[in-house]
């Protein structure tokens, strides 16, 4: 289940939190909860599995940190029961929020790098 309640434990619940993904750019926790968790994941797929290819690289800068990693995603589409498989890369910006702790303030994910001539621009 795509559960924004679980996401709310990781994300900073704020209008400033953002999430860039191949199907959109969500600004604020309410858009992330509704559009990414609710529509992109919840309404599109009946089952999802996300696995990291390796442990994330984590860089800490005082009260901020960046996590970067590659992943593969396997899911079952609700509309036709077909299995969908994608790979990608992701960076997450975390901030240490007073009285709250570490929370995600920004996510950016995309597909694999395109390295062919004329690709990826």
Automatic annotation (TrEMBL):
Occurrences of domain DUF4440 (ranges): 14-104
Q: Which Gene3D superfamilies match?
A: 3.10.450.50
InterPro entries according to UniProt: DUF4440, NTF2-like_dom_sf
Name by which UniProt lists this protein: Nuclear transport factor 2 family protein
What phylogenetic lineage does the species belong to? Answer: Bacteria, Pseudomonadati, Pseudomonadota, Gammaproteobacteria, Enterobacterales
